[in-house]
TrEMBL record:
It comes from the Bacteria. One of its GO terms (molecular function) is RNA nuclease activity. Coiled coil: none annotated. Residues 73-95 have a biased composition (Polar residues). Residues 56-96 are annotated as: Disordered. Pfam families: NYN. Residues 179-243 form the NYN domain. It comes from Candidatus Uhrbacteria bacterium GW2011_GWF2_44_350. This is NYN domain-containing protein.
Length: 282
């Protein structure tokens, strides 16, 4: 047994993913869900509190340079479009992340116990960093499935949305924010069913309860084993349907790194990026 085989066996033992029980494993990754697993973690692997400028992350995008706030621009340079929309940033901005995480850590961990990996995530065609992530995903995973993010207008209420931290837009009908939406429930489910003859166990990386029907179908109609890798917000029904559940905290040391955050300067907005599960708060 070489060193790589030893590490594979050690991780399998640690996570209790025995070859005899689970056989051939295909992993399906809802990265929009994974991307938020550790964003509220306050301690490092040794249990010490993170400093105010540190944060756990699995996100692998390079944050582009901040744009100046609309209010700081000359009027003839303020952004507009053919719908006569204007944009500005709120003044109560939080610290923003400066994150550079290598997807190779995630893919390497998965490859130690699975036979194939399928990655699902949306992209923003207007951001080179978003496209760069997809290029990296295609390099490190067997299949990377993607599609453009759809942006939904949410009209702002002066009272309910007083603490909004997103980029504020304005048109003839009033002020609004754009909420990214890019679910992959259908694509992931179709692939998992279509490929079910090729694996013994489906391993789902997601805490999204929308996949409950998929896991039930694969167990009851296709006689498949189910491994669920999830965060702490996963509902009991989804976990109950799995043959093995693995908390994200158990693999955090393998797939996440601590990065320094960067305090928002005047005019910086919050780069919210693509969302696949709708869990990003307003």
């Amino acid at each position: 047994m070489d060193f790589e085989d030893f590490k594979n066996e050690r991780l399998r033992e640690e996570l209790e993913i025995g070859k005899e029980k689970f056989g051939r494993i295909f992993c399906f990754l809802d990265f929009g869900n994974i991307n938020h697993w550790f964003e509220k973690d306050q301690r490092n692997l040794d249990g010490a509190a993170l400093s105010v400028d540190e944060k756990w992350s699995v996100d692998s995008r390079n944050k582009p340079p901040a744009k100046p706030a609309t209010s700081d621009m000359p009027k003839n340079q303020q952004p507009t479009n053919r719908f006569n929309e204007r944009s500005s940033y709120p003044t109560n901005k939080p610290p923003t992340k400066s994150v550079v995480v290598d997807l190779e850590r995630l893919s390497t961990t998965i490859s130690r116990f699975s036979n194939r990996s399928y990655f699902y995530y949306g992209f923003d065609a207007g951001k080179s960093a978003s496209l760069h992530l997809i290029v990296k995903a295609r390099k490190f995973f067997h299949v990377a499935v993607t599609k453009p993010i759809q942006w939904i207008k949410h009209r702002l209420d002066p009272v309910k949305d007083a603490n909004n931290l997103r980029l504020i837009n304005e048109d003839s009908s009033g002020r609004f924010i754009r909420i990214p939406k890019c679910n992959f429930d259908v694509e992931l489910s179709i692939d998992a069913i279509r490929l079910s003859e090729n694996y013994d166990t489906v391993c789902l990386f997601s805490g999204d309860n929308d996949f409950l029907a998929l896991l039930r179908f694969l167990k009851e109609k296709r006689n498949k084993k189910v491994i669920l890798v999830h965060d702490g917000h996963t509902r009991t029904e989804l976990k109950a349907g799995a043959d093995l559940t693995v908390s994200a905290q158990r693999i955090k040391k393998y797939i996440a790194i601590i990065k320094k955050t960067q305090r928002a300067q005047s005019g910086e907005g919050l780069d919210i990026g693509p969302v696949s599960t709708g869990r990003m708060p307003l």
